[in-house]
Recover the amino acids of this structure.
């Protein structure tokens, strides 16, 4: 076929790039795409605050950065506080339309940085905090974090983690901040829709983005989107948003209240769950079902 | 010719520093309460809530976040301030290094206090000196007037384009923070003239930069070398700014070090902080009995005024260094610096460790040690705990 037919040409989505290729991410890593989608919505007048994580490396060294917007790097525990100060000064100097986005991994969010995150949420600082959750300290080589799920192998839980994942989106919801949402790279429109909503809201906004990691989760790098999709379809990762306390499921998760794919379909694609016993799988399935019972309560409210 | 208009009042140290901060007009402050700094935070909150200081006070959940949030604000161009003490200073430590390494202008007041364990809320310098390698300029006040003057000068030094380093101003917990002393304050217009608006900003949406990224080993050392050079340049800048301040305040300012009666002195005390006042009193008494003694006050601990010390100590026979902090397994912190500055000079450096954890030190203690030295006694290190 020499020419693209007119009807396809018109439908083709031609996008400008918002986060540049040639960065230092691993093959199959969703982070560059996630940032690209985020920055498309947030625009050029955005500052990214990045605590120690995979993205620290992806942002490159002093010779150049794939980011089209200013980036402020932060030690693990400082991101939410640095963003607080940044935003307040941007407002002081008259850049009231600027956006400050914390782009943090699960360790910086749920472990070391949790105090600063909770503090900034309590003060209702005008920032968007995005946790890209790859469920372990991936940058240092796959050590467990508070957000590593039950049963998962990591280099510090060689026999599988025995504790459950910290339910961070729900904990943030309880902070009574204006906007909380979960998202997945397998559902980019849902994700961008949420970023768009968050952008239009003043105060502390939190988006929790499940971010599958091929080397850390032990799957072939071509399955990133597949894994992310199954996390949603099996109910392990519900897509929802909470606007001013009002909870609602979004995208395909709306259809999953009663029936979901069994968790095994999500687990079996990943080497980190390879050694799970039947009993473990049952425990995981029960935990997911229990979470959905809780979600049912939230939906009813 | 500049008309010096000074107002004479009296304030406790914490309020004097808060007043200086108010006059310096920072845009963003973040302070977490800790004894003995708390009354300063309260005063600042009062200034802001009553509209006397048009700034935002970020009420953070920890000292780590206090330094982190003003770091973020400073990166975006704000004049910023924080204050802490003891355990709080330790909790801030990671961000101290971050701010120093990035060379962002920041001013912090440190109400010095002993470090646990065991708990002690009283004064020594163990917390302050622990930051000596964090790439911060460190000054130390002798009295409430010094604390006020140094705070105002700190903003100028920190924001000077030849320096661009954060500055911490130490002043002894309780001894200065809670003691009311006579204070001469400048009027607001004079401070405005002395402290022009800050114009240093790393966030430009039209020319975005990666602030604080990873660097290669080849370059890391170069950044560190640049910081060293800035620290070296700071020595001149501090003295230059002190001279300028002297003109607007009408008060003698000493920049790096102050010498008291050391022209013809055979032996001198060397110390920093509030007990310099006690040492001064001891020198007066010893002089009245015909002893050739003097005193050197360290006003700038980092950069360490090595050259100035060598110049001033050239003709003395011995130095008695009073330390309120100790490097365990090594020796008195100031004493070590003085020894290295006087390396191969043949001058005796004797180290006294005293006042640890608030243990009372009086002029008498200084006098006694000096009398023994004048009688010919020598020691390397002595702890005063009786």
């Amino acid at each position: 076929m020499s020419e693209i037919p007119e009807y396809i040409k018109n439908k083709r989505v031609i996008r400008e790039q918002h986060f540049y290729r040639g960065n230092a991410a691993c093959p199959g890593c969703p982070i560059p795409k996630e940032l690209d989608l985020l920055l498309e919505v947030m625009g050029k007048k955005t500052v990214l605050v990045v605590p120690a994580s995979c993205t620290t490396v992806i942002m490159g060294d002093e010779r150049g950065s794939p980011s089209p917007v200013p980036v402020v790097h932060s030690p693990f525990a400082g991101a939410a506080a640095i963003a607080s100060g940044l935003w307040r000064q941007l407002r002081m100097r008259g850049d009231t339309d600027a956006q400050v986005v914390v782009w943090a991994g699960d360790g910086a969010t749920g472990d070391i940085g949790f105090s600063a995150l909770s503090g900034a949420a309590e003060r209702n600082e005008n920032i968007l905090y995005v946790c890209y959750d790859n469920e372990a300290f991936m940058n240092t080589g796959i050590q467990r974090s508070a957000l590593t799920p039950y049963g998962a192998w990591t280099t510090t839980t060689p026999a599988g983690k025995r504790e459950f994942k910290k339910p961070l989106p729900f904990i943030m919801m309880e902070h009574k901040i204006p906007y909380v949402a979960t998202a997945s790279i397998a559902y980019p429109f849902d994700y961008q829709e949420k970023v768009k909503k968050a952008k239009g809201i003043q105060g502390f906004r939190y988006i929790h983005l499940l971010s599958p990691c091929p080397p850390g989760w032990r799957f072939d790098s071509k399955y990133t989107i597949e894994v992310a999709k199954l996390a949603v379809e099996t109910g392990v990762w519900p897509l929802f948003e909470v606007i001013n306390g009002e909870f609602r499921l979004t995208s395909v998760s709306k259809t999953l209240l009663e029936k979901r794919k069994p968790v095994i379909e999500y687990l079996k694609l990943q080497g980190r769950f390879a050694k799970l016993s039947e009993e473990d799988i049952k425990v995981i399935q029960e935990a997911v079902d229990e979470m959905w019972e809780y979600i049912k309560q939230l939906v009813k409210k | 010719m500049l008309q010096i208009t000074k107002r004479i009042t009296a304030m406790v140290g914490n309020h004097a520093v808060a007043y200086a901060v108010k006059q310096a007009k920072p845009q963003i402050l973040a302070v977490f309460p800790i004894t003995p700094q708390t009354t300063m935070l309260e005063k600042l909150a009062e200034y802001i809530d009553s509209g006397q200081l048009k700034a935002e006070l970020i009420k953070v959940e920890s000292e780590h976040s206090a330094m982190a949030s003003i770091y973020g604000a400073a990166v975006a161009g704000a004049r910023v301030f924080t204050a802490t003490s003891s355990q709080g200073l330790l909790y801030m430590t990671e961000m101290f290094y971050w701010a120093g390494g990035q060379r962002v202008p920041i001013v912090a007041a440190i109400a010095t206090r002993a470090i646990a364990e065991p708990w002690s809320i009283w004064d020594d310098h163990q917390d302050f000196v622990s930051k000596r390698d964090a790439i911060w300029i460190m000054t130390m006040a002798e009295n409430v007037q010094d604390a006020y003057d140094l705070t105002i000068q700190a903003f100028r030094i920190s924001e000077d384009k030849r320096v661009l380093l954060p500055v911490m101003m130490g002043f002894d917990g309780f001894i200065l923070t809670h003691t009311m002393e006579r204070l001469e304050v400048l009027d607001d217009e004079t401070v405005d003239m002395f402290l022009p608006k800050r114009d240093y900003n790393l966030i430009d949406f039209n020319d975005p930069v990666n602030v604080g990224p990873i660097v290669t080993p080849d370059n890391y050392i170069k950044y560190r070398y640049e910081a060293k050079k800035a620290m070296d340049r700071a020595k001149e800048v501090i003295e230059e700014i002190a001279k300028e301040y002297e003109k607007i305040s009408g008060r003698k300012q000493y920049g790096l070090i102050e010498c008291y009666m050391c022209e013809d002195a055979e032996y001198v005390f060397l110390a920093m902080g509030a007990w310099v006042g006690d040492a001064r009193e001891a020198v007066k008494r010893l002089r009245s009995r015909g002893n050739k003694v003097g005193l050197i006050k360290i006003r700038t601990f980092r950069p360490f005024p090595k050259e100035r010390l060598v110049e001033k100590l050239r003709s003395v026979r011995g130095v008695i260094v009073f330390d309120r902090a100790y490097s365990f397994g090594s020796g008195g912190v100031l004493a070590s610096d003085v020894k290295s500055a006087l390396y191969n000079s043949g001058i005796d450096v004797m180290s006294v460790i005293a006042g640890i954890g608030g243990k009372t030190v009086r002029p008498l203690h200084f006098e006694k040690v000096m009398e023994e030295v004048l009688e010919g006694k020598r020691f390397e290190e002595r702890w005063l705990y009786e």
Residues 350 and 380 of chain B are 5 Å apart (CA to CA). The longest strand of chain B covers residues 6-12. DSSP finds twelve helices and 18 strands in chain B.
